[in-house]
Amino acid sequence: MLVTLGLLLSCQLAGELVARGAGLPVPGPVVGLVLLLTLLVWRPGLRATVRPTVTVILANLSLFFVPAAVGVVANLDILSEDWAAILTVLLVSTVLAMLVAVGTFVMVRKTLVGRDE
After folding, report:
1. What is the pTM of this model?
2. Which of 29, 73, 93, 110 is the most buried (most CB within 10 A)?
3. CA distance 39 to 77
4. What are the C-alpha distances in Å from 58 to residues 45, 71, 84?
Protein backbone atom coordinates (compact mmCIF):
# COMPACT_ATOMS: atom_id res chain seq x y z
CA MET A 1 0.00 0.00 0.00
CA LEU A 2 2.83 2.41 0.79
CA VAL A 3 4.43 1.83 -2.61
CA THR A 4 1.18 2.64 -4.38
CA LEU A 5 0.49 5.74 -2.30
CA GLY A 6 4.07 6.85 -2.91
CA LEU A 7 3.59 6.36 -6.64
CA LEU A 8 0.30 8.28 -6.67
CA LEU A 9 1.71 11.17 -4.64
CA SER A 10 4.92 11.23 -6.70
CA CYS A 11 2.93 11.47 -9.91
CA GLN A 12 0.85 14.28 -8.45
CA LEU A 13 3.98 16.11 -7.27
CA ALA A 14 5.68 15.65 -10.65
CA GLY A 15 2.55 16.90 -12.38
CA GLU A 16 2.44 19.94 -10.14
CA LEU A 17 6.11 20.70 -10.81
CA VAL A 18 5.66 20.32 -14.56
CA ALA A 19 2.47 22.41 -14.65
CA ARG A 20 3.90 25.23 -12.58
CA GLY A 21 7.39 25.07 -14.08
CA ALA A 22 6.14 25.13 -17.66
CA GLY A 23 3.35 27.59 -16.89
CA LEU A 24 0.72 25.23 -18.27
CA PRO A 25 -2.94 26.26 -17.96
CA VAL A 26 -3.71 22.75 -16.68
CA PRO A 27 -3.85 21.80 -12.99
CA GLY A 28 -0.87 19.84 -11.70
CA PRO A 29 -2.92 16.82 -10.58
CA VAL A 30 -4.27 16.46 -14.14
CA VAL A 31 -0.73 16.40 -15.51
CA GLY A 32 0.15 13.90 -12.77
CA LEU A 33 -2.79 11.72 -13.78
CA VAL A 34 -1.57 11.71 -17.38
CA LEU A 35 1.88 10.76 -16.11
CA LEU A 36 0.38 7.91 -14.07
CA LEU A 37 -1.61 6.71 -17.08
CA THR A 38 1.57 6.78 -19.16
CA LEU A 39 3.39 4.74 -16.53
CA LEU A 40 0.58 2.19 -16.37
CA VAL A 41 0.53 1.80 -20.16
CA TRP A 42 4.31 1.66 -20.40
CA ARG A 43 4.72 -0.86 -17.54
CA PRO A 44 1.69 -3.17 -17.51
CA GLY A 45 3.06 -5.10 -14.50
CA LEU A 46 2.58 -1.98 -12.40
CA ARG A 47 -1.19 -2.39 -12.69
CA ALA A 48 -1.21 -5.43 -10.43
CA THR A 49 0.77 -3.52 -7.79
CA VAL A 50 -1.53 -0.50 -7.88
CA ARG A 51 -4.89 -2.32 -8.12
CA PRO A 52 -5.45 -3.36 -4.45
CA THR A 53 -4.78 0.10 -3.03
CA VAL A 54 -6.71 1.90 -5.75
CA THR A 55 -9.67 -0.41 -5.17
CA VAL A 56 -9.75 0.59 -1.49
CA ILE A 57 -9.43 4.28 -2.38
CA LEU A 58 -12.27 4.08 -4.92
CA ALA A 59 -14.48 2.18 -2.46
CA ASN A 60 -14.10 5.07 0.00
CA LEU A 61 -14.15 7.88 -2.54
CA SER A 62 -17.11 9.57 -0.88
CA LEU A 63 -14.86 10.50 2.05
CA PHE A 64 -12.91 12.80 -0.27
CA PHE A 65 -16.02 14.97 -0.64
CA VAL A 66 -16.13 15.78 3.08
CA PRO A 67 -13.60 18.67 2.82
CA ALA A 68 -15.60 20.15 -0.05
CA ALA A 69 -18.80 19.93 1.99
CA VAL A 70 -17.07 21.59 4.93
CA GLY A 71 -15.93 24.35 2.60
CA VAL A 72 -19.49 24.90 1.44
CA VAL A 73 -20.78 25.08 5.00
CA ALA A 74 -17.96 27.43 5.99
CA ASN A 75 -18.87 29.80 3.15
CA LEU A 76 -22.64 29.84 3.57
CA ASP A 77 -22.60 33.63 3.83
CA ILE A 78 -21.16 33.91 0.31
CA LEU A 79 -23.62 31.33 -0.99
CA SER A 80 -26.56 33.15 0.58
CA GLU A 81 -25.52 36.40 -1.11
CA ASP A 82 -24.76 35.03 -4.58
CA TRP A 83 -27.04 31.99 -4.75
CA ALA A 84 -28.78 33.09 -7.96
CA ALA A 85 -25.53 33.58 -9.87
CA ILE A 86 -24.08 30.33 -8.57
CA LEU A 87 -27.25 28.40 -9.44
CA THR A 88 -27.28 29.90 -12.93
CA VAL A 89 -23.65 29.00 -13.54
CA LEU A 90 -24.20 25.46 -12.25
CA LEU A 91 -27.25 24.91 -14.44
CA VAL A 92 -25.70 26.38 -17.59
CA SER A 93 -22.41 24.51 -17.15
CA THR A 94 -24.26 21.24 -16.49
CA VAL A 95 -26.37 21.63 -19.62
CA LEU A 96 -23.30 22.55 -21.69
CA ALA A 97 -21.37 19.56 -20.36
CA MET A 98 -24.26 17.26 -21.22
CA LEU A 99 -24.55 18.73 -24.73
CA VAL A 100 -20.81 18.31 -25.31
CA ALA A 101 -20.98 14.71 -24.08
CA VAL A 102 -23.91 13.93 -26.39
CA GLY A 103 -22.21 15.68 -29.32
CA THR A 104 -19.02 13.70 -28.72
CA PHE A 105 -20.99 10.46 -28.55
CA VAL A 106 -22.81 11.24 -31.80
CA MET A 107 -19.58 12.14 -33.61
CA VAL A 108 -17.80 9.00 -32.40
CA ARG A 109 -20.77 6.85 -33.33
CA LYS A 110 -20.90 8.35 -36.84
CA THR A 111 -17.18 7.80 -37.22
CA LEU A 112 -17.40 4.17 -36.10
CA VAL A 113 -20.51 3.41 -38.20
CA GLY A 114 -18.79 4.96 -41.22
CA ARG A 115 -15.84 2.59 -40.78
CA ASP A 116 -18.02 -0.52 -40.58
CA GLU A 117 -19.69 0.10 -43.93
Report:
1. 0.57
2. 29
3. 44
4. 20, 22, 34
